[in-house]
């Protein structure tokens, strides 16, 4: 179906890699741009993708990437906002090289729009953080007093990131057939997760609102939770939830070594005492962290700048809280947006597509 479409995938984790796999499986030619000096590369979702080794901190390699973009249809950007711009590839440069290029940016919270608070968008995060802020993570426990346990199948990255990106690319390709011009596809995973939860949050509004504050079992999740033993299923002390003093929860997603080091530093610990990759030490480390987080409220921990901005810490919101704060949390009120590739030009009419919006609150009047 996508035969003849050339995709350049800047190597990253989860959502970008899965998006590239989706496009490849439907016929696109997907080449992976890989930093040969990267400390860790995940190849699990990259079968059949040829690799081009480029270090984008090297000027010669940056010129090579720009040359590749001249004949490409899609560029997949896995970096946090403005990172690709700082490397020398802002939208206007890419558009000058190839006006038909579709720049697809997948990040935790999307790209900041003009006059918006940029710190919100620059926060690091992982699947557990996006689920926590959406209200979905609250559901993954079978006991009223039990802590939420993240699902191991990386829901947010895939359903909130990779799939919206793939849909956005298809829409941009369709639009390009009419205009001859590429677009920016801006995907915020946190927005995508909230959009994915539309049915459940709408159900909470239809039923008793108070019930949406009570966790309930999904697929006997409380039983499965006892089997936690891996990096992403709640078994690792640096990727799990912790109860706070006010009987609420925070989620920690400090997978990468630098984020784990930031977590320990902010809490007054050292890795010598809490080695990240020593599985035998995980229960002891988790107990230490649990004691620390239980000493203060959720609000207190979420006001700690070093934890939120540098160690992947997020509040775990109940569905009721997620519903209440939805207009504030979803800055853009969508899970992906398409805009003209020329960054300085934004047409809010027919040329800019914003799709889709989350389910609105229930009303007695169809226009509300």
Automatic annotation (TrEMBL):
GO function term, MF aspect, one: catalytic activity
InterPro entries found in the cross-reference section: CoA-transferase_III, CoA-Trfase_fam_III, CoA-Trfase_III_dom3_sf, CoA-Trfase_III_dom_1_sf
Organism superkingdom: Eukaryota
Pfam families attached to this UniProt entry: CoA_transf_3
Similarity remark: Belongs to the CoA-transferase III family.
Protein name: Alpha-methylacyl-CoA racemase
Organism: Mesocestoides corti
Taxonomic lineage: Eukaryota, Metazoa, Spiralia, Lophotrochozoa, Platyhelminthes
């Amino acid at each position: 179906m996508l035969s003849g479409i050339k995709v350049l995938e800047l190597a990253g984790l989860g959502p970008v890699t899965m998006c590239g796999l989706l496009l490849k499986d439907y016929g696109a030619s997907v080449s992976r741009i890989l930093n040969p000096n990267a400390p860790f590369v995940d190849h699990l979702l990259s079968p059949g993708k040829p690799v081009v080794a480029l270090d984008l901190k090297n000027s010669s390699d940056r010129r090579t990437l720009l040359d590749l973009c001249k004949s490409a249809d899609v560029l997949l950007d896995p970096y946090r906002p403005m990172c690709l711009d700082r490397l020398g590839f802002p939208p206007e440069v890419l558009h000058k090289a190839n006006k038909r290029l579709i720049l697809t940016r997948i990040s935790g919270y999307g790209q900041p729009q003009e006059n918006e608070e940029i710190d919100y968008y620059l926060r690091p995060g992982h699947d557990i953080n996006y689920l926590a802020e959406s209200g979905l993570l609250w559901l993954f426990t079978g006991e009223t007093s039990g802590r939420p346990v993240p699902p191991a199948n990386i829901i947010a990255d895939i359903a909130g990131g990779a799939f919206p990106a793939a849909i956005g690319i298809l829409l941009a390709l369709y639009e390009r057939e009419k205009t001859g011009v590429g677009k920016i596809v801006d995907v915020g995973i946190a927005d995508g997760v909230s959009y994915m939860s539309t049915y459940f949050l709408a159900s909470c509004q239809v039923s008793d609102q108070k019930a949406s504050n009570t966790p309930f079992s999904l697929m006997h999740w409380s039983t499965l939770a006892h089997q936690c033993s891996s990096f992403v299923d709640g078994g690792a002390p640096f990727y799990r939830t912790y109860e706070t003093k006010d009987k609420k929860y925070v989620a920690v997603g400090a997978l990468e070594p630098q984020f784990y080091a930031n977590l320990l530093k902010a809490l007054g610990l050292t890795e010598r005492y809490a080695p990240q990759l020593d599985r035998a030490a995980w229960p002891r480390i988790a107990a230490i962290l649990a004691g620390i987080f239980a000493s203060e409220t959720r609000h207190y921990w979420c006001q700690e700048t070093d934890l939120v901005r540098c160690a992947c810490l997020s509040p775990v919101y109940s569905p009721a809280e997620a519903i209440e704060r939805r207009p504030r949390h979803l800055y853009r009120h969508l899970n992906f947006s398409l805009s003209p590739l020329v960054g300085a030009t934004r047409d809010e009419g027919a040329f800019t597509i914003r799709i889709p919006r989350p389910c609105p609150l229930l009303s007695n009047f169809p226009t509300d």
